[in-house]
Amino acid sequence: MTTIERSSGVLLHPTSLPGNLWAGTMGAQARRFVDFLQEAGMSLWQVLPLGPTGDGDSPYQCLSAFAGNPMMIDFEALIEEGLLPSDAALWGGGGQQADFDGLRTHQGYWLPQAWRNFEAKADPARKVAFEVFCNTEAHWLDDYALFEALVQANDRRAWWDWAAPIAQRQPDALDKARAELAEPIAVTRFAQFIFFEQWQQLRTYAKARGVQIVGDIPIFVALNSADVWAQPELFLLNEHGRPTAVAGVPPDYFSEKGQLWGNPLYRWDVMADNGYAWWIARFEAVLKTADLIRVDHFRGFEAYWSVPADAEDARSGAWVPGPGAAFFQAIRDHFGDIPIIAEDLGDLTDAVHQLRDDFELPGMKILHFAFGSGNDNAYLPHNHTTARCVVYPGTHDNNTTVGWFNELPEHTLEHLTEYLDTTPTAKDIHWHMIRMAWASVAQHAIVAMQDILGLDAQSRMNIPGVAKGNWGWRLLPHQLNTAGVSARLRALGALFAR
User: Fold this and answer.
1) Percent above pLDDT 90 for the chain
2) Annotation marks residue 343 as catalytic
3) What's the predicted TM-score (pTM) here?
4) Comparing C-alpha atoms, which of 297, 444, 420 is closest to residue 365?
5) Could you report the per-residue pLDDT of 58-91, keeping only the tens digit for each?
6) Which of 137, 343, 344, 451 is catalytic?
7) Domains of the chain, each with CATH number or no CATH
8) Which of 296, 302, 344, 451 is flagged as catalytic?
């Protein structure tokens, strides 16, 4: 559990920041957002996973569990360093929906040029820093850089559709690929060096202003990822590299057919035999980018929903025991007490609660889930009986608060009205929910940026179970110039000791 006593913060992924390019970056607008948090008296910035995304652009389906997303790189900094011309940062963007495909094309043109200029004229100290980075991160960077180069060389086909010698990682074939793809491999290494350098600069800027980063570590990795290609022995795959069963969740609040995520499942016995070394390395990587870690789908460590690989939806799955306490004990033995937030949502059992509580991990309380049932609902603020939790009006998987309010059935609206002791409207419901969260005994209170601005369902970040059209929402530049909003948040923080 983190040492911060009572705090507040905002959930906003960096790609949602405004700017000149097709998605938000780690540049001036990111620093402006940190300034906004400071002005609002807030000390937490929660982000989604920072890895490079694949088809669908989901940060929960990354091409690597260790790499950073190069689409977040600030091109202005590369221009200032003399690695790119001024027009490299003046193309496209500026709207309220990110265009990830446009940005990929843009970066595919400019990043190789930045690498060639770096190689040709960077000063010796910069080149030494690059080499140190490559050597320090070689345990994942070598495989990821080769994987990314092979993805490009194979017209972005999945790794199991590559030529068999490469898909099966035969040493001679890999050596030949490294020689033939030397430049794209170098470009990927360079992009990762720049990403992590810029992220640490942003994190330092935030720390100087009293803002800590809440990172996110998904429980599963994408099937089409460097991790699965490089270490297939850690996953439940057949001899052709295809999963025998995949991850998902049973029917729930979000979907009557459940959610079929499609991620490969782990060979937890193999991971246990090597002391969960891959997971320890993964936590070490996230701790380099964040101060607190939200562990996504915590219940999957107690038991996970295993769905036959050929199933049409998740209803035919079954619960299979996960690694449980042995896993978290291994993490604790290695790190000591680290600041984990358990995403303990979904179909929970007493065993899941026990696992969370045995390791004194804060869980999550979602106010959107609190209303319309009995007064014993665990998400209602009067049932937040311990400070060891994090309260949200809604998360990135929920509708915006205004969108949620507009769709409430009558009995839920009546309950909400009675609880608030006033009649809310679509124009003020977000402030009622923020106030309710801030008043909770929960140690941390975090609100999505869309809810601070009172935006409707069109600004929703994600609809679980829907593969396309998510993750693209962006702030407009003027929406950070909200002195009245920051003053109101600061006043609420002072009132409720956050």
Assistant:
1) 87
2) yes
3) 0.96
4) 444
5) 999 999 999 999 999 999 999 999 999 988 876 6
6) 343
7) 7-66+205-495 (3.20.20.80)
8) 296
